């Protein structure tokens, strides 16, 4: 029995096997138990010897069993420890942090450039009085140019501003020349969404008022700005235009590359895209804001921020800027 038990013990390597081993030898109907129970039928003179032997074997098996059990538990513990080990030297898993939106990146870039040229930043409300958005800018009620900027009206006197030019009026009202400000911000027009239009977009307004300011200053300022933004080879083009609040007025285009191939269509074939409106502040507007047009003159411009972003990053569909697709946003 001893030899057989020893072999069986060695061969069992699972906890369940150990249990059936225990039952087989030491259980109520186990082999050793059987021998001990049967002592009565053993001849009296051999009884002592057989009993002692059986007890010895039982002790032996119990000891072996306990050792095997302990070894097995230790093995299981070691395996568990090995599996659950934490390598504290491993680099941590990075959580996703957001990045700046391309519109924000470019707005900051523009702010930096203009601040470097001596401009400061002014802000105005997005929900604006009709007076600042239109009337003070020489666009009276029923003026046809209101139709060209499909306005969201809150009521008769309040609109969602259609242009950052409203901030020009707010600044001139409060500040004596010399004035040199920019005002970036969101504007609203009831346009349908397509590749180049959105009902919410961004402008960056510029305003300079001082003695002796001319159209030359306007062109020089814009040219310098575009060079700082896009490099020295960039060209700008002023086309005559009309705005009620500037006279003369111009639309300004910037040269851009037409790179070949798919996904490379910043410009159509002319090689210029329109990025801003500008002009000399209309004397009527200066007067309305309490600035004497006989003494002072000024220029203003309104840059379409989305256009600049598209030109900067070769983006051909404005909708990408608003859809918040991470695959797009993560590129910046
Ligand atoms: N506010 C004009 C627009 O939204 C742009 C502009 C700004 C034109 C300043 C002239 C001067 O189209």
TrEMBL record:
PROSITE patterns: AA_TRNA_LIGASE_II. Its main location: cytoplasm. Coiled coil: none annotated. It catalyses: tRNA(Phe) + L-phenylalanine + ATP = L-phenylalanyl-tRNA(Phe) + AMP + diphosphate + H(+). Residues 106-310 form the Aminoacyl-transfer RNA synthetases class-II family profile domain. Mg(2+) binds at residue 247. InterPro entries: aa-tRNA-synth_II, aa-tRNA-synth_II/BPL/LPL, Phe-tRNA-synth_IIc_asu, Phe-tRNA_ligase_II_N, Phe_tRNA_ligase_alpha1_bac, Phenylalanyl-tRNA_Synthase, tRNA-bd_arm. Keywords: Aminoacyl-tRNA synthetase, ATP-binding, Cytoplasm, Ligase, Magnesium, Metal-binding, Nucleotide-binding, Protein biosynthesis. Its cofactor is Mg(2+). NCBIfam families: pheS. Belongs to the class-II aminoacyl-tRNA synthetase family. Phe-tRNA synthetase alpha subunit type 1 subfamily. This is Phenylalanine--tRNA ligase alpha subunit.
